[in-house]
User: Fold these one by one.
Assistant:
Number 1:
Amino acid sequence: MRGKRSAVDVRRELKGLRLRKLVCCEKGTFTLEASLVLPVILLSTILLLFLGLYVFQTSSAYQTAGLAADRAAFVWDNSRKDPVTGAFNISETDGLYWRLHNDSMSDLFRWLIPHAGAKVALPTTGISNDRGPEGKLQHAGALVSSEWDGSMMYQNNGIFKKVAVQLEKPFHSPVYARERVKQQVASDADAQVVDPVEWIRLIDFTRTVVQEIQGRIKPKDALLAMVEPQSIPEPRAVITSHDSAANYLRTLVNGKEETIQVDASTKRTVDAMDANRVAHQAFYTFNENQLRTIQMPKDEQLLRNGTQVKGVVWHFFKLSKKDQVKLTQGLRSELERKGIVVVLHE
């Protein structure tokens, strides 16, 4: 005969049934999983967003620094060049010897004498009129956005010249990520300064001129060439009219007066045509409007034809009572654009 179960056993059995029912029941599982997984996904997404922002800011710093360095190196041979386009006025240069006296030549001796080098802080305060390395750096650095802090530096190592740029700015990250993400985005870049015109000039000088003069003159003859002349040089020619200017020009270029046919209805009288078919024209008294409307079109047509003359040179002589030739910069620039060479005799 089965014995009666106690009340305690019944309660235990009911409790176990309820527990098994709760464990086996699938109601509410989605809510439970969502409450655990969603915060993890949300935090991961936010971290990825800030990581993407950090990578973008770092890439922007590198691109800005590289662009600033390239622009400064590209226009280094002329402080008046536009850093973006490279355009400049042909009359604005830094002179022939800027590489010797205005290009941080003291950098070559920094191993002997402490030298900080050319350096400017970014953002710059404005464009400087200085034609030295600091002015060139400031000219290119003015294009860098003011949101960036940093510096631009130039080093002259002789053959290898370098412009270096360092940029940085704050990066604001969440509080919980500040220990893992840097609070500053920074980058640096540098660009080599190349001078192809000077390089070609030096190579051409070495290849041609040195070979031409090598062995042509002996030391004794060189000393004789330095002896003071015994004769008195001829007095300087005095130009008082167009005829005297034309005569002086023919003597100067060993040319002769010649009349050439520009087209079927137009003739051109050249004051001095030299042996290389370069037309030299003398101007003593002139009117700029007449030069633009009458003389310039003829010579432009001759240059365009390219058969009767190989070049055109206009010589302007100052009036005997004046200190210099009164020629506007506008006319001079227009002549140079047309291919006409301008020479001032003052």
Number 2:
Amino acid sequence: MKYKVLYIDDETSQNSQAFADGLSSQNLIEIAIKLPTKFEELINELIAEQKDIDALILDLKLDGNQQGNRTATYTAPSLATGIRTKCFAENGFENEFPIFLISSTNNLKKYYDSDTSSHDLFDYTFYKTSIAQKGKEYELLITSITHAYKAIQENKTNFNTLLGLSADSEIPNKVFTTKFLLGDGTSISEISQYIFNEIISKSGVLIDETILAARLGINFNESSDWLSLIENLNDYKYSGIFKDSFNRWWSHDILNWWNSNFPKPLIQLTALDRVNLLKEKFKLDNLVQAQQIHKTTSTKFWTVCQAYKLPLDPKDGFLLDGNLMHPWQDKRYLSLHSILERDAKELGLFIHPAEKERLEDIKQVYK
């Protein structure tokens, strides 16, 4: 069944249709387009049409077109706030649905990026200029997040089911607070965004393909046997909500798998040792060893440089500045080379203040 998505935009019908077509080329979703109008009038329209809305896409600047019968004097965050407050209200929306933001890069920088208070109103942000290249990826995300909302609606506090875990798994007690576990005062959007942002999008209990490959010592882009190897790890692959958009593996299960197959702990081995053991065990000759980033000393890889997404031993890295991490999440690092070459800075990535003195000392070596 295709999800029904309503797209509200003040662009011309031709432009809006082009964006809608770019976001639905795989026929996974069905997008209808609506022009904005007066705030209360639009909210009432959406409530009346809610049975045909599985998800909503809002253009950031809904007040850009002041011609015609349907015009708006508000922006997407204001409308999203009005919609969220009407969920479960009397004569309001019966169920929550995801809200996506779409805009040009310039408008996002000018009107949205600095307004962090409104960021949790939206489940994901799409860039209009990227739709031609990333439309299929965006469509899959819309489908995946919409499915997550419906799954949470049915299993709000059953996190073992939502995360594809066995009924006796203790992982939910590790990653969710009592508020989530009891469902007290938590909305579907809050649960969905927490799982998406803190469990799926950050390394910790789950790891992505780049970190999996780094921990196995493999350059997966150059290894024709990589897919054959990870077939051996299918039992440890994440199977919960968002699985259709993101390949993830349970980090603890990967370590247990290694320990059951090899005598020496993974973290103690160099990339060459890891690859040689894997080749011998699984008869996969076309696994290529991952190489060091310039200006590093170790191949006992455990993470990746956040600027390059290349394997890195944390002892060669510099702690990344940014959001506070949960105890069960992995720390994130930058490589020295990405810092000295200013590649990290261009991506808006900076080292933690506690690392600055060490960086200055090491810089002296490269003068």
Number 3:
Amino acid sequence: MILSLLYLLRQLIGEKIMTLTQLEYVVAVNKHRHFKKAAAECNVTQPTLSMQLQKLEDELGIIIFDRSKSPILPTIEGEKVIKQAQVVIKEYNRIFHILENSQGEVSGKFRLAVIPTLAPYIIPLFAKKFADNYPRVELVIEEFKTDEIIELLDKEEIDAAILVTPLQEPSLIERVLFFEPFYLFTSPDQDLYKKKKVRESDLSKNSLWLLNEGHCLRTQVLKVCTMNLEMSSYKNLRFESGNLETLKNLVVQSSGYTLLPYLATLDLSTQRKKMIREFHKPAPTREVSIVYGRTFLKEKIIDALEETIVSVLPKEIRSLKDGDLSIVDLY
């Protein structure tokens, strides 16, 4: 397929030479909308990248990027070139993915995204073991929110992601890794602190600290707390954090409560663990999966990641039974 695409492009521009490197520069500039950042990603100097793009534009007889804008933007003709360049590069890389997949050894570069409410807790569990067991895999891990991850998977700018599912995205494959129950984390001055176990209906009388917009955990917590709640313990203070650790400290230092997924409770001190309360069964729970596109070819690395992650999970999670859980959907 890539040969036919290159042939068609050559027919369009006659005998002029268009290189794969030039197309990679086009895609990088479109991604960053900034020449310096694109050059850094491509490991070339900015003058080199600019010169090659100018050369390509001269050969095609069009302007790909409007440099008068800030950030720079593709022209109408440029958008068509960018779209086709992405197809060509994808098909070119597919050749190497096929070869890697046909070999017995698990190897290659792999870009993995993890949502912020999972990253600090799940990455330390599996990263070292995976690196030791698969030294020929170059694993690059980054944090993104769920909406960003879906877009990155669609653009094939990442290979897979670990996040909360189901996503209801037909173009993506979801492999469930584990189910993670929620726990209540409450300050001692709350009535909830006096209970040994809590029910979802108990949360209506107390103040809740939340993650800010864009975090899937926020959506799930609000679904557990199906009522109108004050967003903080103080009428004149409202704070929504992007970090679970901040929410923990707010509960400890001020008042109120929050909901924490199981892995976020493991590093609590002995004193802070006294502030944890379980839910009556079935406990509200989130489903965590490894997600990737349907045209994906690096399944050997996916398999290796799945096996490694499952092997390092705490036994409390691996021993959960269906009757103990109540999955909280995102939608």
